[in-house]
Amino acid sequence: MSTISDPLVPGEQVTIGAPIRNSAGHVLDSRLHPVPAGVTGELYLSGPGVARGYHGRAGLTASRFVAAPGGTRTYRTGDLVRGPRDARSGIVYVGRNDFQVKVRGFRIELGEIDAVLSSLPGVDFAVTMGRSTPTGETRLVSYVHGTDTPPGVRELTEHAEALLPAYMVPSVIVLLDRLPLTPSGKLDRSALPDPDPVVAEFRAPQSATEVAVAEVFADALGVEQVGLDDDFFDLGGNSLLATRVVGLLRSGLGVTVTAAACR
To answer: What is the β-pairing status of strands 15-19 and 40-46?
Structure first.
């Protein structure tokens, strides 16, 4: 045990209290710099109670037991928290950051997305998952539970776009009225609902070239129709299908484009 809190109250934020005597807690960002009070970061622990490492597991030891600024030996907990705003409030638990997925060739720590969404006022809890599309591509789906005045999907998306690289911005954000929990009170990930398909307002292709490109997209994606504003990757496309589309456009229309142009 490294922290201790007052009894938790149903419906209120989950706090883990303050570090116990001879133990210290540090809320740090991905570069091991302290984050401001109230901002989400990862919890690192230091003090005489911190072990020297995992027996016989050098790789895991190196990733979990690190030197924070100043040379302090700390243990990386993997817990995402918000530091207390004053001496009376405890550390607020946000979630875990040890869930990873690979999207379009990028390995992503889902907890980093959760931390960004949770930093927006009105968000009580956020969790992101990698969901498979019909073509086998992985897309990011974030589930958000708000407070009494929660932000909308557009506001959440714009917030994520301002703080995250494009490949980490969720394709879909689902607002939850309640969090599905296991009998032990933990988040039941298997009970999170499947998101509705991402559908843009349909605008039909007009010119012969637009019609031909839309037909190539639809054939590659296995869908009935593709509109002018549809995103190839949001519809389930991936880098391999994009390469196929590039070849079909070159042979059918005599044009040379890059895979990035499929957006």
So the answer is: unpaired
pLDDT in tens, the chain (263 residues): 678 887 877 666 677 878 888 888 888 887 888 888 888 888 999 988 888 888 888 888 888 898 877 788 899 988 888 877 665 667 888 777 667 787 877 878 788 898 899 889 999 889 999 887 766 678 899 999 988 888 999 999 999 999 988 888 888 899 999 888 888 777 888 899 887 655 557 788 888 888 888 888 888 877 788 888 777 766 666 666 778 888 888 887 777 776 556 65
> Which residues are paired to 48 by β-bridges?
none
CB of 233 within 8 A of CB of 263?
A: yes
Angle at 181 between CA 179 and CA 187, to 5 degrees: 80
Contact present, 29 and 40 (Cβ < 8 Å): no
Residues counted in the chain: 263
Cα R_g (the chain), whole angstroms: 23
CA 75 – CA 78 distance, rounded (Å): 9
Closest CA relative to residue 72, chosen from 39, 44, 91: 44
Contact 143, 151 (CB under 8 A): no
